[in-house]
Amino acid sequence: MPSSRTNSKWLRLTLAVGALFALAVRIGYRQPEPARQSPAATAASPPAAATATTHSEEKSDHTLQDACQALRLESNTQITRQKLAELRKVLSSMPRSAAVAAIRRFLDSKADAATRLGFKLASNGMLDEAPTLRTFLLDELGRLDPAAAADYSKTVLASMDSADEWAVALRNLALGDASADGRSLLQQKTTQMLQYGPWQQNPSVGFLESFDVPVYLGGTDFLPTLSELVRSQDNPAVAHAAFLALDRLVVNNPATVLQSLENDPNLMTGRESTRADYFARANVSDPQQRQVLESYLLNPSITPAELQTFAGVYPNVNYMISPNLLTSTPMPTHESLMNLDAQALAAAQQWLDDPRFANVAPVLQTITHRLEGLATQAKPGN
């Protein structure tokens, strides 16, 4: 038998081998730890979401840049319309925030391309045709996000680069910012635009369409500016736009606007026949309007020529129906027109019996004869 010392030696050897074996097992089956990046390496690698966003922005920017380049090279207006329609579809298919951001970046770049199309309004006040890519994109911004469009309008209105862009920007500001500050800015910038000499002297269609903004704002603040432009003899296009704006202000708020025109006769000096057309808008069924009209007829400073113009059109039911940036002109019904004629006829007959109106009796007789003839023609069988 081995000695006890020998047994003890083998035992220690066995335990040592067993310990080494156990250590080897633990090392062999240890799970590898994931590789750790240094803080510097982590900071240098952008998150996947940020990378995707950057790529998406670059793609959007390239889309608008490519469209700009293509429009610069295109002379066929039919193809241009197709390209703009395709661009509208692309912008509409994008997330709204991404499309808005892309449009703003392009506009900030000041790049542009002429489309060789007009400045043409659709029935909803949006553009059916746009003369430049920038104008088109400002219009699209209004379609996509009215609040964002109103906000960007402040950038456009900060410098007087384009009357057409200003027209769209004013519309976007009106529709997208209903705050008191927004309305104040709209009024200030509209006044600035209408009084800007270079745009008056060579008016674009957008400049002329912007005369609808005073109609939208209403009131009488624009009467001095509009009346001055109405009297412009050397600029018929601007004078006509101002005439229409004043006329629609009268239609929308006759008592107040006509009273202002009566209080300051100098506003229409040289355009007295136009003033007659405006006062012929008065509806005598409304006590305030009747009072203003009677004061007009009794005003000794009103010339016979102006009164004859008034007699030939009263009650004035002529309307210019067209798409506008912000407002619409409702077409009166046949029944309402017949009632207006009947009320005007009754008022004229009453004035003929009133001694106060003796000086204008010939004018009133002209009115009654004309309206009686119209009533006869309107009877069934005639």
Lay out the secondary structure.
Layout: H1 4-28, H2 39-44, H3 48-73, H4 77-93, H5 96-109, E1 120-121, E2 127-129, H6 133-144, H7 146-156, H8 163-176, H9 180-194, H10 197-201, H11 205-209, H12 212-217, H13 223-230, H14 236-252, H15 254-263, H16 272-279, H17 287-297, H18 304-313, H19 334-352, H20 361-378
Antiparallel strand pairs: 1-2
Helix pairs in contact: 3-4, 3-5, 5-6, 6-7, 6-8, 7-8, 8-9, 13-14, 14-15, 14-16, 15-17, 16-18, 18-20, 19-20
Q: How many helices?
A: 20
Would you report the number of β strands? 2
User: Proportion of β residues?
Assistant: under 5%
Order of adjacent strands in the largest pleated sheet: 1-2
Overall structural class, as computed from helix and strand content, comes to: mainly alpha
Q: First CA to last CA: what distance?
A: 150 Å
Q: Percent range for helical residues?
A: 55-70%
Task: Using brief descriptors, characterize the structure shown.
382 residues, two-stranded antiparallel sheet, disordered N terminus, mainly alpha
Summarize the structure.
The protein is mainly α and 382 residues long. The chain has helices at residues 4-28, 39-44, 48-73, 77-93, 96-109, 133-144, 146-156, 163-176, 180-194, 197-201, 205-209, 212-217, 223-230, 236-252, 254-263, 272-279, 287-297, 304-313, 334-352, 361-378; strands spanning 120-121, 127-129. It has a domain at 58-175.
